[in-house]
Write a structure and sequence with these properties.
It contains nine helices and no strands. By secondary structure, the chain is mainly α. The longest helix is centred in the N-terminal third of the chain and has 27 residues, at 53-79.
Length: 227
């Protein structure tokens, strides 16, 4: 299964100019915003004794693993859910459909702050309600750092030429999701979750011959119909 797409182009997501501007983000912005905040939180938590190095060594990796699970579930069950009506289809178009149609739009390769900040506040608020900052503070930082790694990996798979065998495999994994098997390969910062749950997939031999560099299947730039 494949979806129509347009290579090396960008489109409009909103008619409203303000919303259209808010839907675009420079790839560096999430890192500029979240890295200082989480590092400050992490250092403060240790300096004030609210957590310990031992707990951080345990709960930061647990937070990263939690994000990996969230990344997979959000991508598979929310981003690719279209629903049955015009409203749900519009939500899908905003959340993920646009990216599949214009996979090379560099202004929409990372999550805009308008989407990531509410999610971070919800997660942080729930952890605050749980209490136990000795565990939840490093756990929260791990979730955010896992998210940043996801954003970087997604941007890199679209924007950079991989130089390692793993990078090439991860890029091929994600390009297959875009251009050949959008109902497979939901892991973006990793491939092992797809392997674990059996949702991995490869491009057809025809697609691989058409795109030996891993750029994805070709499309008609006028109609957007996949060849």
């Amino acid at each position: 299964m494949s979806r129509p797409y347009l290579r090396h182009q960008a489109g409009r997501m909103f008619e409203n100019n303000f919303l259209e501007a808010c839907s675009k983000v420079h790839p560096s912005l999430p890192f500029i915003f979240y890295i200082p905040l989480t590092l400050a939180l992490f250092v403060w938590a240790h300096y004030t004794g609210r957590t310990t190095v031992g707990m951080s060594l345990l709960f930061v990796p647990l937070g990263v693993l939690t994000w990996i699970g969230m990344e997979y579930c959000i991508h598979r069950y929310f981003f690719h859910w279209e629903g049955n009506g015009p409203f749900t289809r519009r939500v899908h178009e905003i959340a993920h459909g646009y990216h599949h149609k214009y996979p090379d739009d560099a202004t929409r390769l990372v999550m805009p702050l308008g989407a990531s900040i509410p999610l971070a506040l919800i997660i942080g608020g729930l952890l605050w309600l749980v209490g136990h900052p000795v565990q939840t503070l490093p756990y929260f930082c791990g979730i955010v750092w896992g998210y940043l790694f996801y954003d970087f990996t997604h941007w890199a798979t679209h924007h950079l030429t991989p130089r390692t065998a793993y990078g090439k495999a991860l890029r091929s994994h994600h390009m297959a999701h875009h251009f050949a098997t959008p109902d497979r390969n939901f892991g973006i910062s990793n491939m092992w979750v797809d392997i674990l749950v059996g949702s991995g997939g490869r491009r057809s031999k025809r697609a691989e011959k058409e795109t030996p560099s891993g750029e994805g299947a070709r499309s008609d730039v006028n109609s957007g119909v996949t060849e």
